[in-house]
Amino acid sequence: MLPELENMIRVNPLEEEFGASSDSGGGAWSLLSEEVAAHIDDSVVSLASFHKDNGKSVYFACTGIIIESNSTTTSFLTSLSLLRSTDDDSKIFQDMMIKVRLPNNHLSMGWLDYYDLKYNVAVISIAPFHVFRAAFLDHQRQFEPHSEVVAVGRCFDSCKLMATAGMLTDNGKRIYREELAISTCEITMTGVGGPLVDFNGDFVGMNFYSKEETPFLPRNKILELLMNFRRTPPCWDTSKKRGSKTERGASKARLSPESHKSDLEVSLDARRDKFRSRGYPLPVLEDDGKRLRYSFEEEFSEDIWNKVKKRVASSMSRVVVALASFRGEARLFACTGVFIDCNGFTTRVLTSGNLIRSNEDESKVADNLKIEVLLPDKRHVPGMLPHYDLHYNVAIIIINKFCCTRTAIIDNKVKTGTHSEVLAIGRVYESGKLMAASGVAINKESELDCKDLRISTCQITKAGIGGPLIDSNGNFIGMNFYGLEETPYTPRDTVVKLLENFDAEGLE
């Protein structure tokens, strides 16, 4: 029997905290970089199982780790204790209702996709939710005894993210199954199923619970189990009744519905759907090894965000957002934007006109447009289009009933000379990751049609379109576009004039 089953008390509290919360920035969080903490926040969820009699009686609550997020499903690794019987641990309750509390506090219904009784591991899946990042499972690092680690968990009701630090140890290993390892991190039952990571955010294992220390299933064993998860065919034979000899004797099963297509056909169809839903031209996919280049999710190749001055990074993290435009369920464009002001009731975002252009006629705004803004706190909110200028390729998006706490420093009088050092900032819409690319401003016009555009040597990707170009002190220099060889930008003076024109027009 696994240690958490020995120590389980039903119903375990949903809000049994440990360590320090991410909001405090103290404790274990002070040992992690801002980027690592953000990635952990994006990849850790909370799950709870409920008796189906009324859907309100909680059976078990624990933590989960995002292992896969694509166009068909988002999947989480967690403990099988979520569904396992305490009276007979050879049985699981497959008729439980499963709810997943996502990092953005959204609740989603889940299903049991895979489980392994021996290792007490489950994979829970939900309908695709595109804002998340998977945990760092694919690194090659080896962890020795006394390596410093952090155990992470998330409360179900409050969505509070918690962490506590410790180290790896061999003490007590003889008490548990030989495949388990031990850390000195002190967690509660809430942290069961949560990740154990090092200070770089690399995945060490998945936590169980014991009163004396924290056993965990190491990464190498989890990778083996996930290989089985990806290879195990789905259970299609609906003629087999629940509780049959075949089902009772199985130590693992995959339960979500799929089609009878081959793995390659399913993979290609899923990727085609992914390209269509993101508004990309459909590539010819003849094998499983091709990928779309120059996508709106592509990160800067030389991302120097961790080298940006702390004060500037802190400011940019609060003013830079990501945006996406949709027609129905299909995405048209995704890019970056920046808060420019708030009047107490609405916040305005400066971004690229590409967000709203029609693919059929680039001189027009797309019909039936829906705009979503990914805020710095990872919330998705709707945006409205009050003003735009397609000649200058600029759009203003407003967010109603939201007031930002900080805006870009646009009304400065800073002059940028030739070869002045600058930074281009971007945020990826799907992951929410902030990026920075360094370069210098060049005193020449862009080769594009607009004579007002200038050039910097910052190497960005399409995800950075609409993002701010700033100096080393965070002053706004201009708004970035995209080029393969160099990065055109609209200078601050031009942006200010456009904003004055928009203000004179008033709201439509």
User: What is the percent of helical residues?
Assistant: 10-25%
State the assembly state of the protein chains: single chain
**What gross morphology would you assign?**
elongated
- Average pLDDT rating: 79
As a percent range, the share of strand residues is 25-35%
Give the C-alpha Rg: 25 Å
* Total domain modules: 2
User: Main β-sheet, in a few words?
Assistant: 6 strands, antiparallel, barrel
Annotation, overall tally of beta strands: 25
Q: Decide which structural class fits the backbone.
A: alpha+beta
Description of the structure:
With 508 residues, the chain is an alpha+beta fold. The protein folds into two domains: 3-229, Thrombin, subunit H (Beta Barrel); 291-508, Beta Barrel (Thrombin, subunit H). Helices cover 14% and strands 33% of the residues. It contains seven helices and 25 strands. A six-stranded antiparallel barrel has the order 8-9-10-13-12-11. The chain has a six-stranded antiparallel barrel with strand order 2-3-4-7-6-5. A six-stranded antiparallel beta barrel has the order 14-15-16-19-18-17. It starts with a helix and ends with a helix.
